């Protein structure tokens, strides 16, 4: 069983993961974000597609994927199916990829609806249980049981209890590997803090008789904010004003009405109340005209969020010259859009409004809301859970590094990885190692085992002058070396232990030089094993580190200072033998983009150290002469 990351490891890219099992492909989400995922990279016959929720970066590529694999079954929740139709029908996807509405209808009519909590049998080997993700009406995390492995794919989750969508609630589950989003914020400002800020801005605008226009994405955040504002009005914590929704929000809100009984958040009753009493209203053409002409304060939420198209343009144009009114953005604004130009402008500055120059008089604000949660909330959740394996995706590197550094200290036995797009990971290996407790793996013991393995391999190599994969893997498995590879740090450590012992054994005592042929062969094999567990992305890092530390390595060999470990009992007697050694290094490692350090580089390092520790001078002079 393998897991292939086609897209979405970093934020801002469309999500698409394939779990390949007995030659069948299971897809977890298939998104669109500025572009489609690289469908060509899929090399399995896709049989099952699980969609977590209806945001474009998770569902936007579905029609095209289904064209390529017409036999595939598609699974999602009922609300996701309905909101998904709106997402797939959005201008950006439909027109750019020429997808007729009939295609969307057809694909969505084939969806098999899953219900939260219910375990469904997909086939003899696969079972699935959808879990509440919070995040958006209908959003699921999927707990998959494939053979005897339990894998949780979170999709997008909310760690805070959102007013409508509620909260991610995994319950207690004994899970082997969690594939988790990591789109969290570094600060401690929660979603509720941000929308309270928004409420205050809205209150002061309404008090000065202005209008608030919120250009906002159609599904999720808009409904949460509208409900929170309605709640404040009902509680009499803010003056009453109509909340109008326009653009695709109108269609999405109908689905929220239809499935309001599925909402789980603490303010769901306020939503139902606000809809029936008309505080939150969908706009028709007639009302739109009235709003544009009237002076009554109100709140208008509408697409598109970046003012690329849709009714948001009309409303912004309507209020941009009114100094009482406010344009309020609630998320990151895309570069080179009208939204960005407005946000960057000073009051009174002329803005190119699609060909018309308008001097902005209204106020503008940006409150970046994050429905996912803060990294602090995430770490508290992880700390509580019996986590054994974690693949971090769908987040930025700063957050992933932060989580990684924390977990390396807190949960030492954890399998932890942040794969890159196009990485392929052997899930069988990973699941096997997560099932083993590894709180106290001792490096000394690993070194001892590796030294023995290297000895044995060298003997075999001497007999046959080659090194077969099967033989190598058998030894590694017998000694359970792979279970040490639980994170990047360990993987690197292991790689360099192999490097050291293979180098040690490759030292030709009689001739006084090192032949790196065997070392390079063994590292290639070690790297293959590491790749299976950590993904191909790590290869570059490993060999780059070898490249960057090679000069220091040779310095230690020459000076024979420091620990026994560093010197490996190698004695290179002359400059000629050092040159011969470096040539062998270059020859055998250039395939991995590793260059031999120059004599000059090594000399400089040696000289500096020999000055600090005069007892090493004699070793320095043996190679480089007296200076
Ligand atoms: Zn989402
Ligand atoms: Zn997402």
Short recap of the structure:
The protein has 24 helices and 24 strands. It is α/β, with parallel strands linked by helices and 627 residues long. A seven-stranded mixed beta sheet has the order 6-5-4-3-2-1-22.
What does this structure look like?
The protein has three domains: 2-185 and 372-434, 4-Layer Sandwich (Metallo-beta-lactamase, Chain A); 196-366, Rossmann fold (3-Layer(aba) Sandwich), CATH 3.40.50; 443-624, no CATH class. The longest helix is centred in the C-terminal third of the chain and has 23 residues, at 537-559. It is built from 24 helices and 24 strands. α3 (78-88) packs antiparallel against α8 (248-258), α6 packs across α7 (221-234) and α16 crosses α18 (488-505). The chain binds zinc ion (2 copies). One zinc ion (ZN) binds at residues 53, 55, 135-136, 156.
List the quaternary state of the chains: single chain
What helical percentage do the residues reach? 40-55%
Content-based structural category: alpha/beta
CATH architecture of the largest domain: 4-Layer Sandwich
Full CATH superfamily name of the largest domain: Ribonuclease Z/Hydroxyacylglutathione hydrolase-like
Task: Set down the secondary structure blueprint.
Layout: E1 2-7, E2 16-21, E3 24-30, E4 45-50, H1 56-59, H2 62-68, E5 73-76, H3 78-88, H4 91-96, H5 101-109, E6 112-113, E7 120-121, E8 126-132, E9 140-146, E10 149-153, E11 177-181, H6 191-207, E12 212-215, H7 221-234, E13 242-246, H8 248-258, H9 268-276, E14 280-282, H10 285-293, E15 298-302, H11 312-319, E16 326-329, H12 338-344, E17 350-353, E18 356-359, E19 363-366, H13 375-384, E20 389-393, H14 397-410, E21 415-417, E22 424-426, H15 427-434, H16 443-464, H17 469-478, H18 488-505, E23 507-508, E24 513-514, H19 517-534, H20 537-559, H21 564-567, H22 575-589, H23 599-612, H24 617-624
Parallel strand pairs: 3-4, 4-5, 5-6, 10-11, 11-20, 12-15, 12-16, 13-14, 13-15, 16-19, 20-21
Antiparallel strand pairs: 1-2, 1-22, 2-3, 7-8, 8-9, 9-10, 17-18, 23-24
Helix pairs in contact: 3-8, 6-7, 7-9, 16-18, 18-19, 19-20, 19-22, 20-23
The structure holds zinc ion (2 copies).
């Amino acid at each position: 069983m393998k897991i292939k990351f086609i897209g979405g490891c970093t934020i801002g890219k469309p999500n698409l993961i394939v779990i390949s099992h007995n030659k069948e492909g299971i897809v977890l989400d298939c998104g669109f974000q500025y572009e489609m995922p690289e469908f060509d990279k899929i090399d399995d016959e896709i049989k099952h597609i699980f969609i977590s929720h209806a945001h474009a970066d998770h569902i936007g590529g579905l029609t095209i994927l289904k064209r390529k694999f017409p036999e595939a079954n598609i699974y999602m929740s009922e609300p996701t199916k309905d909101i998904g139709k709106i997402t797939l029908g959005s201008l950006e996807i439909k027109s750019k990829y020429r997808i007729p509405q009939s295609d969307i209808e057809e694909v969505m009519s084939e969806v098999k609806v899953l219900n939260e909590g219910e375990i469904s049998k997909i086939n003899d080997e696969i079972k699935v249980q959808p879990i509440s993700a919070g995040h958006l009406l209908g959003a699921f995390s999927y707990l998959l049981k494939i053979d005897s492995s339990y894998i949780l794919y979170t999709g997008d989750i909310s760690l805070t209890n959102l007013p409508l969508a509620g909260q991610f609630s995994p319950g207690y589950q004994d899970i082997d590997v969690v594939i988790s989003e990591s789109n969290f914020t570094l600060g401690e400002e929660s979603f509720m803090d941000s929308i309270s800020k928004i409420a205050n801005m809205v209150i002061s605008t309404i008090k000065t008789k202005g209008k608030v226009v919120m250009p906002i994405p159609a599904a999720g955040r808009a409904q949460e904010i509208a409900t929170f504002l309605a709640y404040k009005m009902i509680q009499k914590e803010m003056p009453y004003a109509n909340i109008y929704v326009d653009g695709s929000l109108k269609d999405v809100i109908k689905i929220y009405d239809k499935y309001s009984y599925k909402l789980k958040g603490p303010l769901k009753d306020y939503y139902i109340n606000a809809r029936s009493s008309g505080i939150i209203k969908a706009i028709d053409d007639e009302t739109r005209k009235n709003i544009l002409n009237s002076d009554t304060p109100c709140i208008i939420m509408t697409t598109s969020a970046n003012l690329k198209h849709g009714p948001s343009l009309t409303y912004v144009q309507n209020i941009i010259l009114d100094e009482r009114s406010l344009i309020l953005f609630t998320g990151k604004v895309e570069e080179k859009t009208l939204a960005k130009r407005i946000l960057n402008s000073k009051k009174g500055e002329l803005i190119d409004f699609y060909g018309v120059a308008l001097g902005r008089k209204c106020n503008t604000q940006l409150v970046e809301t994050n429905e996912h949660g803060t990294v602090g909330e995430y770490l508290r959740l992880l700390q509580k859970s019996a986590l054994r394996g974690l693949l971090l995706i769908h987040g930025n590197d700063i957050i992933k590094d932060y989580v990684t550094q924390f977990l390396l200290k807190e949960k030492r036995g954890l399998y932890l990885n942040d794969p890159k797009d196009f990485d392929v990971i052997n899930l069988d290996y990973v699941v096997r190692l997560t099932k083993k407790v590894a709180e106290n793996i001792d490096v000394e013991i690993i070194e001892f085992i590796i030294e023995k393995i290297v000895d044995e391999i060298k003997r075999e190599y001497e007999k046959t002058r080659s090194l077969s994969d099967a033989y190598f893997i058998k030894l590694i498995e017998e000694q359970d070396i792979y279970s040490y590879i639980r994170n990047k740090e360990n993987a690197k450590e292991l790689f360099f232990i192999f490097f050291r012992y293979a180098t040690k054994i490759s030292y030709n005592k009689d001739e006084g030089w090192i032949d790196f042929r065997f070392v390079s062969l063994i590292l290639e094999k070690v790297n293959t094993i590491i790749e299976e567990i950590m993904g191909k992305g790590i290869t570059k890092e490993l060999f780059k580190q070898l490249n960057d530390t090679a000069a220091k390595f040779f310095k230690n060999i020459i000076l024979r200072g420091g620990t026994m470990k560093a010197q490996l009992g190698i004695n290179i007697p002359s400059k000629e033998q050092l040159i011969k050694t470096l040539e062998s290094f270059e020859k055998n490692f250039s395939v991995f983009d590793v260059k031999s350090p120059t004599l000059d580089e090594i000399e400089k390092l040696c000289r500096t150290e020999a000055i600090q520790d005069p007892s090493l001078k004699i070793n320095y002079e043996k190679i480089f002469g007296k200076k």
